[in-house]
Design goal:
Length: 282
């Protein structure tokens, strides 16, 4: 009977891991219009595609399959004019996401009756999809989303992400991008124009790849503070509901597994050489 050595097994694993995988299957969900009714059917179709039902449990969990953030449960202490903590939805309300931006932080809009005006002070530009808070980066149009097992520092990935943009008026200035654990781009798509005060939904499911980071580009202008924009020329875009598949613990990408296998091969070869030299020296 032919003997299969450990060396042979490692070669097989390495070669199998090095084979280029088929490209991921990505399905985009998008719509835009003047009000919530214009995008609700698309949002609902995205929900069905991700799974988890329609009734939220604790921390925005839908059946342990999908998470949602509608910003409306954010307390006043974390809302405009106060800064919003980037890790709020992994610490205070653990939903497995942490935000970052090259700007100066984040804001969640105030509810009616609070110290700051609602809608970031831009009542003629914004409306809400789910009343009544909105979300934005400050001094930047870029928001990065990274995933963790909810309530932990263990890196995770997801297989779907979508959100509602508010006031997309310029084609090509607002987009959604997905990156894998190696920070390779696996998806990029521009949001549809919803018009002044309009709403745009954009989301995608991914089969055959894992999303480790999402980059959201919101228009070409920025919010500096309540009622203040970066310039008076370009339009500003903010965000409402986020929806994403339950974050699961990250696993090594195939290229990482292949490199590990090659490392084992090198160690094995070195050991064989040493053994051969010792045998010849006897």
């Amino acid at each position: 009977m032919k003997r299969i050595t450990w060396f042979t097994a490692v070669v097989a694993v390495t070669l199998a891991s090095s084979v280029r995988a088929d490209p991921p299957v990505i399905v985009t969900f998008e719509s835009a219009g003047a009000n919530a009714a214009a995008i609700t059917a698309t949002r609902d179709a995205f929900r069905v595609a991700v799974g988890g039902g329609a009734v939220a449990g604790a921390n925005g969990s839908f059946g342990g399959v999908r998470r949602e953030i509608n910003w409306d449960g954010v307390p006043d202490a974390q809302a405009d004019p106060n800064p919003f903590s980037a890790n709020f939805f992994n610490v205070n309300s653990p939903r497995g996401v942490v935000f970052s931006t090259p700007g100066t932080g984040f804001l969640v809009s105030a509810n009616a009756g609070q110290a700051a005006p609602i809608l970031f002070g831009f009542a003629n530009d914004f409306q809400v999809f789910s009343p009544q808070r909105l979300f934005t980066a400050v001094n930047s149009n870029t928001t990065d989303v990274r995933f963790f097992l909810p309530g932990t520092t263990t890196a995770a990935t997801t297989t779907a992400f979508g959100l509602v943009f508010v006031d997309v008026e310029v084609a090509g200035a607002t987009r959604l991008q997905f990156f894998d654990a190696n920070d390779a781009l696996i998806y990029s798509h521009d949001a549809l124009v919803g018009g002044n005060q309009g709403l745009s939904f954009l989301g995608a499911t991914v089969d055959g790849a894992a999303i480790a980071r999402v980059r959201i580009t919101s228009g070409s202008n920025t919010i500096v503070s309540n009622g203040v924009r970066g310039n008076q020329i370009d339009d500003i875009v903010v965000m409402d509901d986020f929806l994403y598949a339950e974050p699961l613990q990250a696993v090594p990408e195939p290229s990482v597994v292949a490199l590990t296998g090659l490392g084992l091969l090198g160690a094995f070869a070195a050991r064989r050489r040493r053994a051969g030299s010792a045998e010849r020296s006897r």
